[in-house]
Amino acid sequence: MLQATELLPGAFHVPLARLADARGAFVKTHAVGALARLGLHFELREEFYSLSRRDVIRGMHLQLPPHDHDKIVYCPQGRALDVLLDLRRGKGYGRSRGVLLDAREPALVFIPRGVAHGFKALEDDTLMVYKVSSEHAPTHDAGVRWDSFGFDWDCAAPLTSERDRRHPALAEFDSPF
Ligand SMILES: Cc1cn([C@H]2C[C@H](O)[C@@H](COP(=O)(O)OP(=O)(O)O[C@H]3O[C@@H](C)C(=O)[C@@H](O)[C@H]3O)O2)c(=O)[nH]c1=O
User: Fold this and answer.
1) Cβ(117) – ligand 1 distance below 6 Å
2) Which end of the chain is flanked by fewer CB atoms within 10 Å, N or C?
3) Is the ipTM, as predicted for this complex, more than 0.90?
4) Active site (annotated) includes residue 30
5) Would the CB of 148 count as within 6 Å of ligand 1?
6) What is d(CA 61, CA 84) in angstroms, rounded to the nearest whole number?
7) Is the CB of 13 under 6 A from ligand 1?
8) 3-27 pLDDT, tens per residue?
9) Which residues are responsible for catalysis (predicted)?
10) Cα–Cα distances in Å, from 26 out to 15, 21, 138?
11) Which residue intervals of 31-100 are DSSP H helices?
12) Pocket test for ligand 1, best of 49, 60, 61, 99 (most atoms within 8 A of CB)
């Protein structure tokens, strides 16, 4: 893993080495030792992926205590604007950060519990892979409306889910973190 950037306290963008040869490319996406060198200890409980067309916006999602979890995401196909929103009470509350995830320049994003996650697909067939440190708990699967926290998504007509349109605005969200 290459030089990491801290996006929000405890949230990291970590570039991944892409080893290309005549056959194609090789990318290591999980290395416990490299995460530990960033002070990160991650216990995998579930892994899943989503496929999105261009201008799909998913988010902003997080699981609430006691089912809260850390999350690692990466984009092995396509391109996405990945977005984090800090919902941990304190001076950083409500702060957001966006970072480009491009399969051609692989990187992962580590998202600690208490930080909501979302993204906009910048291309058709954008694949997002997730790893989470607790199991899916539908009763504790929460969110904040994607257009309620002042982030510029630069998207006139996003395709969103019914569930994502019903999330509370940031101003209405009662954070347990
Ligand atoms: C997240 C999740 C969903 N599901 C189900 C619920 C639903 O029927 C279907 C699709 O779920 P959603 O509409 O919530 O999928 P989606 O909007 O893609 O949810 C994802 O969004 C991004 C931004 C994240 O950060 C992820 O952690 C995850 O919350 O899959 C599971 O069975 N297990 C899971 O862990």
Assistant:
1) yes
2) C
3) yes
4) no
5) no
6) 9
7) no
8) 899 999 999 999 999 999 999 999 9
9) 61, 130
10) 14, 8, 35
11) 32-37
12) 61
